[in-house]
Amino acid sequence: MKMLPIAAAVVLAFSVSAPVFANSSVVNTNITESEVLAAQKAWGEALVSISTTYEKQGHAAAKQLAEKVIDSAYGYKYGPVLFKPTLTVAPQTFRTTREGALAYFVGSDPAFPKDTGFALKGWRNVEIKNAAIYITGDVATTMGNVMITDKTGKVTTVDKTWKFRKTDDGKLVIVVHHSSLPFTPQ
Amino acid sequence: MKMLPIAAAVVLAFSVSAPVFANSSVVNTNITESEVLAAQKAWGEALVSISTTYEKQGHAAAKQLAEKVIDSAYGYKYGPVLFKPTLTVAPQTFRTTREGALAYFVGSDPAFPKDTGFALKGWRNVEIKNAAIYITGDVATTMGNVMITDKTGKVTTVDKTWKFRKTDDGKLVIVVHHSSLPFTPQ
Amino acid sequence: MKMLPIAAAVVLAFSVSAPVFANSSVVNTNITESEVLAAQKAWGEALVSISTTYEKQGHAAAKQLAEKVIDSAYGYKYGPVLFKPTLTVAPQTFRTTREGALAYFVGSDPAFPKDTGFALKGWRNVEIKNAAIYITGDVATTMGNVMITDKTGKVTTVDKTWKFRKTDDGKLVIVVHHSSLPFTPQ
Amino acid sequence: MKMLPIAAAVVLAFSVSAPVFANSSVVNTNITESEVLAAQKAWGEALVSISTTYEKQGHAAAKQLAEKVIDSAYGYKYGPVLFKPTLTVAPQTFRTTREGALAYFVGSDPAFPKDTGFALKGWRNVEIKNAAIYITGDVATTMGNVMITDKTGKVTTVDKTWKFRKTDDGKLVIVVHHSSLPFTPQ
Q1: With the C-alpha atoms ordered B111, B115, B116, B118, is the resulting torsion angle positive or negative?
Q2: Cβ separation of A178 and B136 shorter than 8 Å?
Q3: CB of C176 closer than 8 Å to CB of C82
Q4: How many angstroms separate the CA of residue B4 from the nearest CA in chain A?
Q5: Of A10, A91, C71, C159, which one's alpha carbon is 20 to 30 angstroms from that of D121?
């Protein structure tokens, strides 16, 4: 063993490449950037899927798919989700329950009379451009623009914040989602 | 609302009493709900302080105070902050740097020509109504409405998401801040 | 964009490789396995350095180095460290203070009369064999054997648990350290 | 110490009341000190229950109870547990699998020939004296002495480190457990 002065030893600690580690097993509950990017991508694909399912198979099929998407992509089964969709208004701005999220995506819920079904609006493509990502433990927050293209080619840009949490089964769920149209100066 | 000088407001944020624990000592890096509520309150008081400092002492004093507020209440010294202020527009929507945050609060920065100084607009009171809070480890995200009253009595309501992190010195800093005007149906 | 059924989209989320991500910056406070392994290695090197410094430069120099090692490698400045050294006995088994750790490493402290200076015992090499590692957020716990060889070639094996925490400045400190000689059946 | 059946002991561990919070709902994945203390207490009660079950109902019943205890009190279903029991020896010192833990507690497993069943040794009371506790996020590490009294009144004291993790269902499981007899100077 080489005799390193302690200053060098401390520096060493943060400059080595990951060694091969044959004899142990590792549990790691942390979320990674690539998991977050993949979950964002899956969200966009799910939105488009709901739109096309609606067009090809009707509202019931779209609603059923939306329920699956909400159950797998959002964390409602762990408690309230901090969801502020793009187009909701007071007094139903925040959709902390699964019912509120479902109404927003597919409408037709008398309890949320102003919802017309955001996911049904003919979406064809979703592009995500993150401004920055903040990772701590099993949660990560992203902020940036999301550009959603509909079947006529029209692009809607929103400012979006997502917070994902990695659950005990290794899946990512959205626990915070704040979406807003860009500010328009009067 | 009482006008607290900023020093007092900052102290307020961390005035939670520690639990008695007779037979051992405890290190706990977690953030608590009461710390979060105090930090929200301190943010509102700081905003009002910048407004009143501007009116009584002018722009230079207001800018100096805003710098102090940003340095103590936001986490820019740890890296980019995910900050989407209420009134910013593309291509400068996201203010991930300290300079961008300062320009938003007090304006007069040629690098951010559209900023007119949000904190200078005569604010007198800030009220916070959380829809829900999500706490994991040393971070907590809040979502809800913030009602800001100006000196004419006019109230501006915004939809706001904040994520606070408790740093190693036990202070809370904002690491995510998404603020938006309520959606207005056409 | 391809129309993926939702099941496929969800699978996608956890099977993609990290994409290049030009336009954003990332803050990540999590600890990694390679950081942990490097910190373990640095601990071993520091122990050997104290031994050789003692032999070449005497006790004062060894003590000074031990103080530097403790201050950089252990988390005493953040609160009590859960340190159960290999050779301590009741009622001073647990060394939750910096003073207790220093006494253990270099002895000569009247407040800890049974300490003879563990780090002064002619150590030449440290080998670490982890049984497993458990990572959550900014902390990671390792458990396994540490084999310490002295200048006569004699190897001492201990059962060791370490918990490291990554602080706000990105450095790793030991916050838990339980070391024990293997059980010897009577 | 009262003899609680294991079901009651397990319930005990999670009987902390939630704080009242009028105007919002809160998700909090963090572990608390009182949860940790309750989980420690439940561990002690479970150990005593296995001993008394063995005496009254025989080995099969004790083994069945031990399996329940391991499944509810340890985190083996999430991956390896870093378990160094008091009395194990190389090359089977570390019990990172459920099988290894069960063999340690009740013996009679040919794969672990030196295990005689630690939990069967007539335990009547467990007292825990923490030196310190270290809490980050959903994990907490305790270090201190555990005094175990058997039916003859003899007290065995061990140095013990436990790390608990709060899982998504709000339960605490042990993910690290390092137990050792006090060092005996020659």
Answers
A1: negative
A2: no
A3: yes
A4: 31
A5: C159
Nearest CA in chain C to D114: C185
Cβ D85 vs Cβ D104: under 8 Å: yes
Q: Which of C184, C61, C76, C165 is nearest to C120 (CA)?
A: C61
Give the 3-state secondary structure of residue A28.
Answer: strand
CA distance D50 to D39: 16
* Number of DSSP helices (H) and strands (E) in chain A, helices first: 4, 6
Distance of alpha carbon B99 from alpha carbon D161, whole angstroms: 47
On whether the CB atoms of residues B83 and B177 are closer than 8 A, the answer is yes
pLDDT tens digit string along D124-176?
999 999 999 999 999 999 999 999 999 999 999 999 999 999 999 999 999 99
Q: Do C134 and D161 touch (CB under 8 A)?
A: no
**In Å, how far from its chain's centre is CA A144?**
12
CB-count burial class (<10 Å; 0-12, 13-18, 19+) for A128: middle
Which residues of chain A neighbour C16 with C-beta distances below 8 Å?
Answer: 34, 37-38, 41
Measured distance CA(A20)–CA(A13) in Å, rounded: 16
Torsion sign across C-alpha atoms A9, A13, A19, A24:
positive
Q: Looking at residues C55-80, what average pLDDT do you find?
A: 97
Across the interface, whether the CB atoms of C132 and D175 are under 8 A apart is answered no
| Distance in angstroms (rounded) separating the CA atoms of residues C10 and B26 | 41
Query: What token pair was written down for B71?
Result: 């340095």
pLDDT for C19: 36
Q: Is B101 in contact with B81 (CB distance < 8 Å)? A: yes
Q: What is the ipTM of this complex?
A: 0.87
User: Which residues of A are less than 8 Å from B183 in CB distance?
Assistant: 86-89, 180-181
Put simply, the answer to whether A25 touches D96 (Cβ < 8 Å) is: yes
Candidates D16, D21, D30, partner chain B, best to mutate (most B CBs within 10 A): D30
Dihedral class, residue C143 (left if φ above 0, else alpha if ψ from -120 to 50, else beta):
beta
Q: Which two tokens stand for residue B20?
A: 């008695």
Contact C133 A25 (CB under 8 A): yes
Res. A24 pLDDT band, cuts 50 70 90: low
Going by pLDDT thresholds of 50, 70 and 90, the confidence category of residue C7 is very low
Whether C176 has its CB under 8 Å from any CB of chain D: the answer is yes
Neighbouring C-alpha atoms within 13 Å toward the C-beta of B142: 26
Judging by DSSP bridges, how do beta strands B139-150 and B123-136 pair with one another? antiparallel
Residues with Cβ within 8 Å of D87's Cβ and at least 6 positions away in sequence, in order, are C183, C185, D104, D118
Instruction: Give the closest-approach CA distance of C182 to chain A in angstroms.
Output: 19
Chain A residues in contact with C36 by the CB 8 A cut-off are none
Which residues touch C175 (CB under 8 Å, ≥6 apart)? B27, C74, C75, C78, C81, C82, C139, C163, C164, C165, D134, D141
CB nearest to C6's CB, from A32, A37, A49:
A49
SS3 C87: coil
Whether residue C131 contacts residue D91, with contact meaning beta carbons closer than 8 Å, is answered with no
Model pLDDT for residues A32-81, shown as the tens digit of each residue: 999 999 999 999 999 999 999 999 999 999 999 999 999 999 999 999 99
CA dihedral for A120, C1, A95, B73, sign (positive or negative): negative
